[in-house]
Amino acid sequence: MLETLNLRGNFITKVTLSYLEGPGGVDIDLTFNNITVVSFKNIDRENGTNNSILRLGHNPLHCDCHNYDLFKYFNGEVSDNVLMKFDIRTENVACATPKILRKKTPKILKLWSLVCPLENLTIKTEIWTKFPKIVTNSFRWINFSNIEINVTNNNIAVINLTKYDEITRLYMSHNKLKTIAGIPRRLKVLELDHNHLSALSSDFLRTLDTSHLVNVSLKHNPWICTCGSEVLTNFVRKHAKIMDFKQIYCSNSTIPLVSLNQSDLCKDITLIVTVVVISLLLLPAVFSALFYKFQQPIKVWMFSKNLCLWWVAEEDLDRNKVFDAFISYSSKDVDFFVETLIPELEKGPEDYKLCVDFRNWTPGELISSSGVKSINESKRPIIIHSQKFLKSV
């Protein structure tokens, strides 16, 4: 029965364990080869207890996703059946790639430290209008704990990142992004510059504030700056992680957002309040001036409508009248009018000032015009309502 298989010092680059299964335990020496990958394909298909020893010393192992099953073996995360089949020895074995893990001992590495060399994943060769859906279970051997997604120069307008917890770097510059929600818990880099963002919700900013982000890019967005933008302003001011904070401008300002104070942000409200206050101060003055100029017609109108009669006195209505009364009479009553009525009114106790046609009308002026003028200049019209007057009408 074969007990030892010496394959050292060859140019073997890959080992498939299922090909090395045998009826009994064999000491297989694969040291000093060029083995980069150990495949566990089909190894768990049949039960076995051969307990072969596999020596891998001095081989340039790739410590990446292609050796995912090998590192699961090192971490004790394979079935007992596999453990009973092979005892893999890694004395004098160090990682050859990737560069970040070079010369590291494979047995001490954790699964999450593996880096997949998949540099580009082309899903569609077209301009995207929404964020792509990535099905991670399609690649069982890939460690999706350190995903970088670059979707720059597309037409994506809305994105919700609540289900993308494993993304660490997200590049979304030069899109048409208007709304963004959710922050992946592992996200470290977020580039949102050159989009159509005008505001970020308070919840989103609070999540950003407590995240592991080390770099955020927000420049060249049409930010709307109002009193409600104070949360965004404070976030930009206190976070050194925003590398382009001096290039973040409001759409209605030429001053960087970080340099704006509360009065700048609330400029519209300040203007409105100022206008309202000035208006309230000016309204009484304007009203008083108008009333002073037009108080007579105003009071007459109010008096005629029975409005605020307690405020409108007859003396106020008659204050600017020239005559106390205009007397209209029949020419056939002129003797009574001149000899009796006028002397009684003008020279009596009240000393009334009367407007009469023969004394106050302008010769040659129309009777109708003179009559209207006399009525307007007199406090009261008086009509001598005699039989002669009625007959003359």
Topology, element by element:
Elements: E1 4-6, E2 14-16, E3 27-29, E4 37-39, E5 52-55, E6 60-62, H1 68-74, H2 80-85, E7 86-89, E8 94-97, E9 147-150, E10 158-160, E11 167-171, E12 179-181, E13 189-191, H3 202-209, E14 215-217, H4 230-238, H5 262-265, H6 267-304, H7 314-317, E15 323-328, H8 334-346, E16 354-355, H9 357-360, H10 367-376, E17 378-383, H11 387-392
Parallel strand pairs: 1-3, 2-4, 3-5, 5-7, 6-8, 9-11, 10-12, 11-13, 13-14, 15-16, 15-17
Membrane topology: Single-pass membrane protein
GO molecular function, one term: signaling receptor activity
Pfam families: TIR
Descriptors for this entry?
28% helix; Leucine-rich repeat, LRR (right-handed beta-alpha superhelix); 393 residues; four-stranded parallel sheet; single chain; Toll_tir_struct_dom_sf; rod-shaped
The whole-angstrom Rg is 51 Å
The geometry reads as rod-shaped
Q: Number of folding domains?
A: 4
CATH class of the largest domain: Alpha Beta
- Class computed from helices, strands and strand pairing: alpha/beta
The mean pLDDT is: 80
> Distance between termini?
155 Å
Spatially, the strands of the biggest sheet line up as 1-3-5-7
Low-pLDDT segments: 135-141
Named CATH topology of the largest domain: Leucine-rich repeat, LRR (right-handed beta-alpha superhelix)
Q: Give the full name of the CATH homologous superfamily of the largest domain.
A: Ribonuclease Inhibitor
Number of helices: 11
Total beta strands:
17
CATH architecture annotation name of the largest domain? Alpha-Beta Horseshoe
**Helical content class:** 25-40%
Largest sheet: 4 strands, parallel
Order of helices and strands: EEEEEEHHEEEEEEEHEHHHHEHEHHEH
| Strand residue content | 15-25%
